[in-house]
Design goal:
CATH topology of the largest domain: Rossmann fold
Order of helices and strands: EHEEHEHEHEHEEHEHEHEHEEHHH
Helix content: 25-40%
Strand content: 15-25%
CATH architecture of the largest domain: 3-Layer(aba) Sandwich
Number of domains: 2
Number of strands: 13
Largest sheet: 7 strands, parallel
Structural class: alpha/beta
Shape: globular
Length: 355
């Protein structure tokens, strides 16, 4: 018997949108479930629309904004959800509107993804994330994590029963394999927050004066001083403006390597985007990053804080022969496609629902 499933993400983050849209389209194509999608009115990535795709003018961030208190719209939305009598409601990202939907959605079994079990210190929204985590642990029937490493931490930190916690890999919609361009450029992509290791990046870029670094991402004000130092380096190109989906794609394709010199991480969507565009990665072995990278196959793991070794690994990767590099691009792509492709995510998702 088909389950009636509502997939929800009010996020304005392109990664969350690509994840939930990819699952929606894959489940719809398979045809074994009656699937609906609820998302933000102005998505940043492509979406196949139908009568089952509900797009609403919701608050763009999980915090408190004027739109948060649009009680008329929220009430109408909850009424619409209750009328459909869903078996399952799955929330891909944290959002304040998730909470009343969980409370008033009727008998549906709810699943909420928590991306950061331990909110990153120094992040401006650390308190908000912690409060939201506490709220969804209390209100949702099930919690979903993207890595195995932090399951016990979640249980201890938030007092949740372990049987309510599920592990489900991230996924993305993958295009065909992208041939390497051999540009001898490396890419650091994503919002420049304290935990992203921009302090390490500065030292690494200095150690690799002949290698070109593309650094793309909005700057957290706390990191402006280090970013200003990066700007002074002749081998660093900085783009701290908003980038479109097409500009993001071009940035990944135009890089030979994607680098993550992070100080901490639960998991990283940047790694999956690198695989998606057939690019291997170099990263510090922190958090659950080693669950996402197969060392010497899809990229290289470097011992944390060994910036000199990180720089040497980049240098070796850039100067290696094209044949070996192309082989690694292939390995990164097919490793990512198998582990993170949205088509393979269907079986993992439906297996989780059966549990």
């Amino acid at each position: 018997m088909k389950k009636k499933i509502l997939l929800v993400s009010f996020s304005d983050n392109a990664d969350h949108q690509d994840t939930i849209f990819g699952l929606y389209e894959a489940l719809e194509d398979e045809g074994k479930q009656d699937v609906y999608l609820l998302a933000i009115k102005t998505p940043k990535v492509a979406l196949r629309r139908s009568s089952h795709t509900w797009l609403v003018d919701c608050p763009e961030r999980p915090g408190i904004t004027k739109k948060t208190f649009n009680i008329f719209l929220l009430s109408a939305l909850i009424k619409k959800i209750r009328k459909e009598k869903f078996d399952v409601i799955y929330f891909e990202s944290l959002h304040v509107w998730n909470l009343p939907i969980m409370i008033f959605s009727g008998s549906a079994c709810t699943y909420q993804v928590i991306h950061e079990v331990i909110p990153h210190e120094g992040d401006k929204q650390v308190k908000m994330v912690d409060l939201m985590n506490k709220a969804v642990v209390k209100l949702s029937d099930n919690i979903v994590l993207r890595n195995k490493k932090y399951i016990d931490e979640l249980v201890e930190r938030y007092g949740i029963e372990k049987e309510r916690v599920h592990y489900l890999e991230l996924w993305r919609r993958f295009p065909k394999f992208t041939e390497p361009r051999y540009t001898k450029r490396v890419l650091f992509f994503g919002r420049i927050n304290p935990y992203k290791g921009v302090d390490n990046l500065l030292e690494i870029a200095k150690l690799c004066p002949k290698i070109h670094f593309d650094v793309i991402g909005r700057v957290d004000p706390q990191m402006q001083g280090i970013v200003d130092e990066l700007k002074k380096l002749p081998n660093v190109f900085l783009n701290n403006n908003y980038v479109s989906d097409d500009e993001m794609k071009e940035a990944f394709i135009n890089a030979d390597w994607v680098i993550l010199p992070y100080n901490s991480a639960s998991q990283s969507g940047v790694i999956i985007d690198a695989y998606k565009y057939s690019r291997p990665v170099i990263a510090f072995d922190v958090g659950a990053i080693n669950e996402q990278i197969e060392d010497n196959t899809s990229g290289f793991l470097v011992k944390y804080k060994n910036n000199k070794n990180f720089a040497m690994t980049i240098d070796k990767g850039i100067k290696g022969c094209n044949e070996k590099y192309c082989l690694m691009c292939n390995r990164a792509y097919y490793y990512g496609l198998k582990k993170y492709g949205s088509l393979d995510a269907i079986s993992r998702f439906t297996t989780m629902l059966k549990k």
